[in-house]
Amino acid sequence: MPPAHPFDFDAVDADKLHEECGVFGVIGVTDAANFVALGLHALQHRGQEAGGIVSYSPEDGFNSARRFGYVRDNFTSVSLMETLPGALAIGHVRYSTAGSKGAAIRDVQPFFGEFSMGGAAIAHNGNITNAEALRRELIERGSIFQSSSDSECIIHLMARSLQRDIPARMEDALRRVEGAFSVVAMTRTKLIGVRDPLGVRPLVLGKLADGGYVLSSETCALDIIGAEFVREIEPGEMVVISGGKVESRRPFRAQPSKFCIFEHVYFSRPDSIIGGRSVYETRRQIGVELAREAPVEADLVCPVPDSGTPAAIGFAHESGIPYGMGIIRNQYMGRTFIEPTEQIRNMGVRLKLNVNRALIRGKRVILVDDSVVRGTTSRKIKEMILDAGAAEVHFRIASPPTAWPCFYGVDTPQREKLLAATMSEDEMREHLGVDSLKFISLDGLYRAVGASEQGRNNSCPQYCDACFSGEYPVEPADMIEKGFKLKTAAE
Amino acid sequence: MPPAHPFDFDAVDADKLHEECGVFGVIGVTDAANFVALGLHALQHRGQEAGGIVSYSPEDGFNSARRFGYVRDNFTSVSLMETLPGALAIGHVRYSTAGSKGAAIRDVQPFFGEFSMGGAAIAHNGNITNAEALRRELIERGSIFQSSSDSECIIHLMARSLQRDIPARMEDALRRVEGAFSVVAMTRTKLIGVRDPLGVRPLVLGKLADGGYVLSSETCALDIIGAEFVREIEPGEMVVISGGKVESRRPFRAQPSKFCIFEHVYFSRPDSIIGGRSVYETRRQIGVELAREAPVEADLVCPVPDSGTPAAIGFAHESGIPYGMGIIRNQYMGRTFIEPTEQIRNMGVRLKLNVNRALIRGKRVILVDDSVVRGTTSRKIKEMILDAGAAEVHFRIASPPTAWPCFYGVDTPQREKLLAATMSEDEMREHLGVDSLKFISLDGLYRAVGASEQGRNNSCPQYCDACFSGEYPVEPADMIEKGFKLKTAAE
Amino acid sequence: MPPAHPFDFDAVDADKLHEECGVFGVIGVTDAANFVALGLHALQHRGQEAGGIVSYSPEDGFNSARRFGYVRDNFTSVSLMETLPGALAIGHVRYSTAGSKGAAIRDVQPFFGEFSMGGAAIAHNGNITNAEALRRELIERGSIFQSSSDSECIIHLMARSLQRDIPARMEDALRRVEGAFSVVAMTRTKLIGVRDPLGVRPLVLGKLADGGYVLSSETCALDIIGAEFVREIEPGEMVVISGGKVESRRPFRAQPSKFCIFEHVYFSRPDSIIGGRSVYETRRQIGVELAREAPVEADLVCPVPDSGTPAAIGFAHESGIPYGMGIIRNQYMGRTFIEPTEQIRNMGVRLKLNVNRALIRGKRVILVDDSVVRGTTSRKIKEMILDAGAAEVHFRIASPPTAWPCFYGVDTPQREKLLAATMSEDEMREHLGVDSLKFISLDGLYRAVGASEQGRNNSCPQYCDACFSGEYPVEPADMIEKGFKLKTAAE
Amino acid sequence: MPPAHPFDFDAVDADKLHEECGVFGVIGVTDAANFVALGLHALQHRGQEAGGIVSYSPEDGFNSARRFGYVRDNFTSVSLMETLPGALAIGHVRYSTAGSKGAAIRDVQPFFGEFSMGGAAIAHNGNITNAEALRRELIERGSIFQSSSDSECIIHLMARSLQRDIPARMEDALRRVEGAFSVVAMTRTKLIGVRDPLGVRPLVLGKLADGGYVLSSETCALDIIGAEFVREIEPGEMVVISGGKVESRRPFRAQPSKFCIFEHVYFSRPDSIIGGRSVYETRRQIGVELAREAPVEADLVCPVPDSGTPAAIGFAHESGIPYGMGIIRNQYMGRTFIEPTEQIRNMGVRLKLNVNRALIRGKRVILVDDSVVRGTTSRKIKEMILDAGAAEVHFRIASPPTAWPCFYGVDTPQREKLLAATMSEDEMREHLGVDSLKFISLDGLYRAVGASEQGRNNSCPQYCDACFSGEYPVEPADMIEKGFKLKTAAE
């Protein structure tokens, strides 16, 4: 029996971790908002719930449009884009956070504030781990919050700064803020980009042929507008771009960087380049590592589409087992906003994925997926594969067990919902009912991303891997206040 | 410079041939319309412009809903689906035809007619080649047409039949009709399926666990609702399903069948089964044939996503050259309805595809695509690949040159717009500016689809391959009247 | 307690008889559809549910737009009106009929048919009393109906006529049709107007300064576009307007005319002119008659707004009792489409009307209303007046008791719902709980409309007054088949 | 020729002064928001552009909905009203101000602020004359404004107050504010109402049968929900309603009151009661005074509908000249938001008003209107009346010449656009081209509203009549800063 309202959800994606945001900004081009729309379209995988653009022109001042839904369904109409004139614009795409009860347009960024020296808009990727304490303090002092977003703290802190120019106010504000943030901001004349001292979330600088500058979460969004990739904004760096010049500032105390290793595994697009490496190549290399770490005799290496594809190609290449599309993805799935029950979530995978029965029948199949979160989708896929007549099913996972929630801008279930938080690898294998289940080791992952031949430097890890290790580089203050327990020495 | 309204089109798909319709029907289940919605969702690749569902319940009679846009964006709301009660329903998805000036909701099927013995609804996949002559005759006799669709002739012919039951009227009507048709129809008590004598378009029969029956363009839509694949409706067969029984009739004179070979190449979903073969496997085999027919030294086999992927996997496997994702497709592209200019069409590929630059750089790349229609997209892709630093670019095409328009339910450009209609393979290679360009031979294609080891039986071809060969199994009467020239003996 | 969803209905209007349609057409002006939109806006009181316009231009052919809701909310957008080019256009506004289960856009006129000699569109005001018999016959012969409207018969009869030009086909068709009809139609070159032989519904001819011609249900719609009133189309007349010429035809056998007397009482706008008399003046005169027929001592003459106003002015003038606005109407009520329960209908008057308490308190009040249908509103108004402290309440009704349904294009409740069908005047007074209740006499009404000093000619009444007298000038064949009982000699 | 897009405006109303807001609040009833919707519907004449409702329930907290358009078109859907649960709710309707460039939903009230002791919402009728100075100061200190509304100052002043409960913060805030304000506010447990010390705008208290309390701009909105009128909130009074008790506070220094005299003339609904008098009766009395002050021989007294009607009734009664509806108003006009040109505004009256030609022809007509603002509509009406064949046209205006803009919450054109600011009565008569033109005298108006038999007390006027006299009871500080010149001794 199909569900009564069959498409109320997006079953496969619902069982993934989700990047919560993408940011993009352009200065120095005619109709900057059109470039931002294109950039956000290329960053849509970082946030599908809503998007917003703010632009500025001397004649029309600041203008803003915020919409639920895909960039292509909103920021494509002539009539809307004409309301966003000017040579300077920033934008934001966001994913809805699991806990929020009903999305509201007032939570959609960029956020805007009018100060005595002029207006500013900010777009934030990441998560402020002391946002609730800051919000309480600001309300106590008379600030009125318009959204439930942690990011709104930044603009209120800027409003209250005594500095006389906006970049300086932004430095003031961001020094009060803890957690992960890559921020793109704009004033009437400046495009500003900042990464937190650990550099948890990405942010890159690009340049257009005719002199404009671009800030973007990922390089794939530079490609779409034909911008040249200049460099990554460095952890703890602020760039202020104006009059064709890029000024670099260092508002924070220097620290060892902790880039999110999951950006390599899943969040970033495979055609983006991080740390000088193609994300696709890194993922393929994860497949190679996995084939070395956890080989198995089989007839077919089959990706769970689409995120498992590069690792499956690597696994097949390294193992010599033929690669094939055993699971076909429906191209016409969208994203909807109604929260499905656990039961419907199980049922729903079939709406998006179908088994290529003729290929699978009688074969020993290796399924390569990027991660296991709740395990609900994995279980369903295994059932579909067995129903189609597979002889054996082996799962190979391109990341270590996800045992801890992320508090730095990723939508993760509560810890107890994470399969790996409550089960060992063996228990998971049994729970999923597969012939074998193997995750790449943490060291294997570090090798694949090119950190070091030795793998992870346990005394000072080269990346933030809190979701695997439980080692949080920034203490999640708000969450601890709410009762979250950090990893104990015993664990 | 990005285009002013950046997403007004769908650049890659615009340079493909397009199946114009998918049909689906269910009898014998509660809330049949929900099953139809799921089935149409699985058939969405056969028509993205619009969809419609008609249902019947004894209490509420016939109800109908027709909408522009994707199935998942319309036939998902509780309030809409509640208007379609009953245990019997049929549905249709359609693609807009190139020539039509503006889409109108009245052109969206199913079409409905109230006769003295009760109502009937029909959904038609294919094209009636003598529709214009029939329409003139029917108007002369007092019929009032509501749409510009060729399919509407069928319901008017049924209305005028002197037969006293609806299936018999349908036989009457379809014997007047020439061309290609797979029709799913319903009365108050019967679900009916028919294929034209040549069996140009597909139609399959499925069965649900609890006794319901299903008719569908493809088997992939049986999978989504958990129906078992029973068999294909045979060319020239009519099935009348009622009271849990499937009655088979043969209203037409028997003829050798001419199934559309392009369904194997591109139209059908890879997880569908046609003639007992997985479409995916056929496409992979085309890649194998192509690697044998047209080998080349290279470093990377790279599909043009997504339709070129199975053939590329086959090519890589046969040739031993590594397979890799050199081109990344943006998952968030949709379909829009504004007709782009040729110039914008060239520019627009970048909105959907991006090159995986790090993978491509310095490599000799074999690009595997399913077909070349106008050639505009192929040229653009070649440029992107070269810009990214490829050393050589070799095109391998999984179908023979498309040199003739289809008149049997496929949206093709006029003959003079088809690259292969005006250029030899060599001229095309030069026009596209690639290092080599090879199409699979017609015999190779026939081998890959499993027709015969010898390939095509030229005295009586096993398939309709008019788009490649110019040999039309049914004379396109309306088009000839409008001036279309059939292939001459000299050609 | 207010109702849960407070505005789901339109309480006062719900207890009125309702004209079902207004028609309008223009030929010989640039952008004829704009004129039609204005005309329909002026005729909105004749039908608020939906409206439609068809236009023709040689370049663009026939175009059509049909919408639910007010004219001003639809036919006002540049983008819509630009789709209706040409110098010839017709339009229609309609009221929903009580019995229809859910309105459908396919029931909205004008109806269009493509014939072998070209297309035609028709807009019909009235009701065809043998429509169901005709529909059965047409379906039997192979016509496919698109709507549930009686008016669609006309276009199918035209389609099947053997005449070679469209006006002749229309004559053929209308000679088959019984009942009341004022039709405006168009071909590619002609604007056509017809009234049934009895002339039950109005239709007038106007002329624009620059040579264009206009057909309209009422003269008030000529005023809005600055057209000069030429004359009424006569009962049984067809006018064919083309090339600046008005040709008059007589397709029907001559009969004594039977114009609807309720057009004078309520349906027509007070600023329209019928039979050479201002409707406002006629209504004022009804008030004068009423004051003579049914005087009463009182302090205040108060209209039930807005339809009772002219008669109240006449009553006050004749009686010498001061006129005052004791009931204030909320200007912001609209029309909605949800069917209210009888209970909610009672409650709802207060949403539209409020008592001017300070004026009413302690006074003997004469309330002048145009008619009593179900009596629900009258009762509620009486209660509001008494709650506000009136000393006495006297109802004076500007029409005789409405005891019979209309079958000629007016939405009336079933006979048993009409208060006057089941109660004598005295019983009604008691039921309403007022100090006195008087209806104008049938003779008084005939005097007021200027028919004759003697009143009604009972042997051959000058008007159709079936709703008062039960004497139907055309036998309502379909209704009789369904069980409706005509007045017996005993009644 | 009709205008190209015929309904882009509302010609008659465009030439009136407009009240900018209505406010309404309820405490102590189930589903308070439904009551507020009804109340706002009854207050729709005070603001047609947009409306908003905030409700509070302990389970769901504060909820808010703000919409453009009529109350009945928005706050009627079950699904919307279900989002506004609770026993406490306030609402607001607003008119767009002439100067604002494009309406934004963020300008629609109520405004909401979350403070450390809980949330509060406010709805404001009136205008703060020092809002711009306050806004500058608040921004300087770090407040971020969300709207362009003057009313937002109040909530920011409250946020910054050091008082520990919300009513006390409101007192703090309102003591900083100059101008006219009637405010309805709510906390989680209290409904609050305040009028400024002069009591420029109205605010009344009502009581529901089952113990709930109501605050409303006018008494007519008490009637619709069946609430009993208790009393007016006094100038300078704050009422805090909670737990079934009404506490009265006096936060401001006492001053002589200055109620807006134009509320009597035009803004308030005729069925409301102000200062113990029916507004209808006051307007009728103005007509009586006018007939005494400015008699003229004529055949017909005719109101300019609908606002001139009560005065016309009074004029006819006092003069003995028959009253008649010489101008008929189209009931189906709505309000649209596109700004018409002066030229179109002239043309457009005909869309809303039509002359009752048969009544007017050959008569000497007295037209009674409530006011003359720009004079554009008056001129057009005069033309229509003369075109219809009137022998003479005499204008009688139920207010003195409007020569000064209002800065206390009324939308008035700039001073130079007011006809009376630049012309004497004689020049106006000539400009309008009428046979005579007379305004009621200021003393006559004061007599009619019942202020005193002697009329206006010039040393301390009993009302605010700044729009007539140029004597502003509160200095319009922001406007003076922008260059507005107060009346000089010489004027």
UniProtKB/TrEMBL annotation, chains A, B, C, D:
Segments forming domain Glutamine amidotransferase type-2: 21-244
**Which PROSITE patterns does the record match to this protein?**
GATASE_TYPE_2 (PS51278)
Classification via Gene3D superfamilies: 3.40.50.2020, Glutamine Phosphoribosylpyrophosphate, subunit 1, domain 1
Q: NAD among the record's keywords?
A: no
Instruction: Identify the catalytic residues.
Output: C21
Q: What is this protein called?
A: Amidophosphoribosyltransferase
Q: Which GO terms describe its molecular function?
A: amidophosphoribosyltransferase activity
Which gene is the coding source of this polypeptide chain? purF
Q: Please report the organism this UniProt entry assigns to the protein.
A: Salipiger mangrovisoli
Matching entries from Pfam families are given as: GATase_7
Co-factor note (free text): Binds 1 Mg(2+) ion per subunit. Binds 1 [4Fe-4S] cluster per subunit.
Name the keywords, alphabetized. Answer: 4Fe-4S, Glutamine amidotransferase, Glycosyltransferase, Iron, Iron-sulfur, Magnesium, Metal-binding, Purine biosynthesis, Transferase
Q: Which family does it belong to?
A: In the C-terminal section; belongs to the purine/pyrimidine phosphoribosyltransferase family.
Give the metabolic or biological pathway: Purine metabolism; IMP biosynthesis via de novo pathway; N(1)-(5-phospho-D-ribosyl)glycinamide from 5-phospho-alpha-D-ribose 1-diphosphate: step 1/2
Q: What is its EC number?
A: 2.4.2.14
